[in-house]
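W.,

You were right to be curious about this one. When I first looked at the sequence I had no strong expectations either way, so I just let the prediction run and decided to look at it fresh. Below is the sequence, 136 residues in total, followed by the output.
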Amino acid sequence: MTNEEARGAGRRLDEVAEAAARAFRLLPAGPRDLPAPPGTTSQARPHRISTDRDTVERDLVRLVLTLVELLRQLMERQALHRVDQGDLTEEQEERLGATLLLLHERMNELCAQYGLTMDELNLDLGPLGPLLPPPE
């Protein structure tokens, strides 16, 4: 490697290091970086979230089922759009309708299996409102 190549490689490494340093400055603050709430000491703040296994499992299932329900509703809307456009044959419409009905029934079964309701799958996104549209 010539001196010029070595200097070029060194500059590229410096650029990468600078880019990494900028990226780390943009990362959100960690728990230890946040100031303690008024009236508490830094030792009083919990460093870990305490969870129990059943709650974590149920919440994960709820999140997965929420995503599946969102996708199911999107597929249903797309199917209705295609039916309205006349893009499907009568046989395709029947098959699509049966598939969507079966998927809806399976979602209800999974919710019942995990002690959830379809309403519980509709996550509240705060100022954006609910994730899923209201049932029609």
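Here's what jumped out at me. The two ends are 69 Å apart (CA to CA). And, maybe more interesting for your project: Residues 40 and 106 are 49 Å apart (CA to CA).

Coffee later to discuss?

I.
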